[in-house]
Amino acid sequence: MAINLTGLATGLDTGALIDNLMAIERQPRTRIASQQTAQLTAKNALQAVSDALKKLGTAAQALSDPTVFGNKQQVAVGNAATATATMVSGAPTGGYALQVDRLARSAQADYAWTAPAAASTIAVAGAGWNDAIAVNAGEAASDLVARINGDPSLHVVASVSTVDGQERVSFASRATGAASGFTATAAGVLADERTTAGLDAAVRLDGVVRTSPTNTLENVIPGVRLALRGVDLAGTTINVSAPGADADAVGKVAKDFVDAYNAAIDLLRTTTNVTPTSKGALGGDLALNALQTQLRGAMVQVTGGLSSLPLEELGISTGKASGTGTYSADAVQGRLSLDTTKLNAALTADPAKVRATLTASPGVVKDLVATLGSYTGASGSLTQRIALVGDEVTALGKRMDAFDARLTARQEVLKAQFASLEATISKLNDQRSWLTGQLGALQSSR
């Protein structure tokens, strides 16, 4: 900070002199600040690497979790326009023949509409329920329909149409099935009733007739939910697979693992990279370069004995960084790729071997988890290094604080010294002026 101290007696800019002297004395402090900035940058870079490795470790643990593989059954319908099927629980394995003779539908009633001169009520009654729908005087049919459809507590929905110049209101039960019938009455408002009965869905499963009040059939095949989509007299097939590996779940954890691995490798590469024109935050760091080599080597090793496969045979592969042939940029950089088709084929061909490969201990994935833990665990080498660098950042901060205190004290000393100098010079100037005056008086008196 500039010093506002003028040299009235000496004619010197003492404030500028003090500033310049302080700038010289502040140079060691500037070097300490630069050291702290460099150490803080290194600490942040190391922490980012640690976070990425922890995410990779979490993804690797998920990939090696035996419960991911499960015993999942698949159900498929030959014609999706006929029905869709969902597994609810374990189901008998095998094929089934399905014919849909009829879809379930709701009961309907259509009435000629006359707007009431005075407020009225439409009484709608079904099996075990009653709705009382208020009608305002002179209310338009479209307004009534909008109110009915906007009230989910009612058991019916409504629509309006015009037939031969006559406005008509149609009601339909919200429920489907033969038991969905109802009546609607309102004297002077509704007339000329035309009804359509509700129907149960009717299907034939392996020739046996089954009915349902809805188009969703539970446990017609034990453990399977069928959602009917259309009538199909010709019929279609439903196939329930034997319990096997959950390909979707395995595919998800495999993708998460590959993504986490690539994120870690990318960060390590950019952090340690050194080029003629640029350098990463930890450019050329030997320990992190060794970690990159260790990670890449882990992805191509085969451990776990004869029951295991190379990851490449599961669709998880990394390219070589050298050798013959043309390689993609990802391959050269050691990134992984996931071939889900290859993974699914391996799960279909030998799910037990895929499971053994990914869950074995020792095994490629379990070994990777252990390796990552040796870096990022509570006593891991990377964790300890981050702590040491953090201690250095703190120590440098304390050195700067102490230096700042010394600089402040030194500045006050310089200000006092220059102020004293100014006072002394001012006093000498006063004495000189007095002596000059006395000498002048003596000369004039002669």
Sheet with the most strands: spatial strand order: 1-15-3-11-12
Helical region count? Answer: 9
What is the 3D form? elongated
**Cα-based radius of gyration, to the nearest Å:** 44 Å
Number of strands: 17
Mean pLDDT: 87
Query: What is the H/E order?
Result: HEEEEEEHEEEEEEEEEHHEHEHHHH
Task: Assess the beta-strand content as a share of residues.
Answer: 15-25%
What is the helical fraction, as a range of percent?
40-55%
Which structural class do you get from the secondary structure elements?
A: alpha+beta
How far the N terminus sits from the C terminus, by CA atoms, comes to 57 Å
Largest sheet: 5 strands, antiparallel
Notes on the structure:
It is a single chain. The chain is α+β, with helices and mostly antiparallel strands. 45% of the residues lie in helices and 22% in strands. The chain has nine helices and 17 strands. The protein has a five-stranded antiparallel beta sheet, with no helix packed on it. A four-stranded antiparallel beta sheet has the order 7-8-4-10, with helices on one face. The protein has a three-stranded antiparallel beta sheet with strand order 2-14-13, with no helix packed on it. Strand 13 and strand 14 form a beta hairpin. The chain is elongated.
Outline of the structure:
Helix content is 45%, strand content 22%.
SSE order and pairing:
Layout: H1 14-63, E1 75-77, E2 83-87, E3 94-102, E4 108-113, E5 120-126, E6 129-135, H2 141-149, E7 156-163, E8 166-173, E9 182-185, E10 190-196, E11 201-205, E12 208-212, E13 216-221, E14 224-228, E15 232-240, H3 247-272, H4 286-298, E16 316-318, H5 329-332, E17 336-338, H6 340-349, H7 351-359, H8 364-376, H9 381-445
Antiparallel strand pairs: 1-15, 2-14, 3-11, 3-15, 4-8, 4-10, 5-6, 5-9, 7-8, 11-12, 13-14, 16-17
